[in-house]
Amino acid sequence: MCNPSTAPSILSSKNSGLTIDIIETPSKVFQQGVTHHSSTCAKDPEDLEAGWSSDNYDSKTVYEEEIVECSPAQSTKATGFVDRSATKEQIEVFSNPYPLPDLEANGIWRELRYIWMITYRKLMVLTLAANIAAIIPMIIFATRNDGSFTYADAATATAANLTAAVLMRHEHFINLLFRIVCALPTSMPLQFRRQAAKVAYSQGGIHSAAGISALAWYIFYVTLLSYHAQGTHAEIIALHVLSALTTFILVALIILALPNLRAKFHNIWELSHRFGGWTAIGLVWAQILISTVASASQASQPVGLVLAKTPAFWLLVVITLFLIYPWLWLRRVPVEANRLSTHATELTFHNRPVKQCMAIGFSHRPLLENHKFATIPPPYTTPDSQVPTRASPGGKTSSYSVLVSNAGDWTSRLITSPPTHIWQRGFPTTGVMRVASLFNPVLIVATGSGIGPCLSFLNCNPASATHSHRVLWSARSPELTYGSDVVGRVFATDPNAMVIDTKKTGHPDLIALSWGMVQEAKAEAVVIISNPKVTKQVVFGLEARGVPAFGAIFDS
């Protein structure tokens, strides 16, 4: 994790009179300026709340653009880093030596490889294939009526898939996966690191496939139960009623999780996934207990002994513990709000240490909503140089911040009426930006408030002799919207950073610019934090041209 600053930092928003010397860069796009902090009133379609998951944006507003007239008090002139943003002419001059190559022919194969058969879907297909390979012979065995495969076995398979689905979303499993992958040395072959990085943040494919497989096995279980159920008449009726309810809930959860429906009815999906999932697990618990009591009665054995011999029981125990665990971290914590503009605010917390590239869930109503944001540890600065350096191994700090932009009703209220306290739930979870450490050099691309997750990495990994990075940030009035402190941190970690003010230049061709910066810096890979549309476009545009690119999946 990063260390706190031990001396007044040149990046502090208090130092609003800092003079920036001319910095000659390979791109020749930055000029001298004097910083003055101010604000703006803009909504930018490039904005993103945090960048790890689709919980972080409102699909109804993320692509809309609304320019609101600023009041005189809000339109203070800023002359600092604004002058260092790239102009249209400078962008063209930079791009000319690195023209974007045309894509090769055979577009069907290219689309199949880089859009449809991404690592997420590969993991999904492999998981589904494994379950299909298992369920087909089990169906054959079950038709023999020789007891070689019973409804209890189908219940075990159902519970196993539910366990896998829940495990793929568990904070510590995700963190462990990233920790293993990011421990790979940069000396390993690039393609190996690329595939490992893709797997690290694509575990959602297993989650989805395991959920679908659980439904298939459960239907198989219900079918066998209808023929071979044991127990009293009341017990059998109860099992059938519970089976019908559980089947309905599982089908509804899977339908609502379809990408188009999830994006269109995100709040409904979130509530159904939470309460419907809990209800389904509760119903399965009831079925296991009733069937166990019936089996114990038929075999004249103690119920506890039969339960102990039932694999589905132990798997349900694991699932239940996984579901309870995040709530053990539920805390109502104080928060300090620093309103950067009418479009963005920075929330600061002092309740726990966080490592780089982690996200934490925030909420006003923990049972009904959970919004994940990227946490930003403070940059480490040496007392003598006041220049960010790599954090010392043993350093700890309980301070971190969160960058929030206006991407929907919830974030809008957070900006206009900041709370003094807010609920946090769950353990910090590693996000996609963490894979940037696997590549050297690496290009980091952000749009709007997607710079927040990037700063989580940049603050903890300043450029050094052993690891270098470049930054490309496109945003509407970046200094006016996010403040000179945020812009200053970007230039502190990469003096050659290309910061684009889309209010002046319009929306740039991020694929072409990323390609040019990759060629200039000889970067091994690109990591982008943006909204779903831009992320998919840039990742596809670069991957199809042979550049490893990584971005959030937006599958939850």
How are the SSEs ordered, and which strands pair?
Layout: E1 19-20, E2 33-34, E3 42-43, E4 66-67, H1 88-95, H2 107-116, H3 119-143, H4 151-167, H5 171-182, H6 190-200, H7 204-228, H8 233-256, H9 259-264, H10 266-299, H11 303-308, H12 311-328, E5 331-334, E6 336-339, E7 344-349, E8 358-363, E9 371-376, E10 400-405, H13 409-416, E11 421-430, E12 442-447, H14 451-460, E13 469-475, H15 478-493, E14 498-501, H16 502-505, H17 510-521, E15 525-529, H18 532-543, E16 549-551
Parallel strand pairs: 12-13, 12-15, 13-14, 15-16
Antiparallel strand pairs: 1-2, 3-4, 5-11, 6-7, 7-10, 8-9, 8-11, 9-10
Task: Give a structural overview.
By secondary structure, the chain is α/β, with parallel strands linked by helices. The protein has 2 domains: 304 residues, Rossmann fold, CATH 3.40.50.80; 211 residues, no CATH class. 46% of the residues lie in helices and 13% in strands. The chain has 18 helices and 16 strands. A 7-stranded antiparallel beta sheet has the order 5-11-8-9-10-7-6, sandwiched between helices. Strands 14-13-12-15-16 form a 5-stranded parallel beta sheet, sandwiched between helices. A two-stranded antiparallel ribbon has the order 1-2. This is Integral membrane protein TmpA. InterPro entries: Adenylate-forming_domain (IPR052979), FNR_nucleotide-bd (IPR039261). It comes from Hortaea werneckii.
Briefly characterize the structure.
By secondary structure, the protein is α/β, with parallel strands linked by helices.
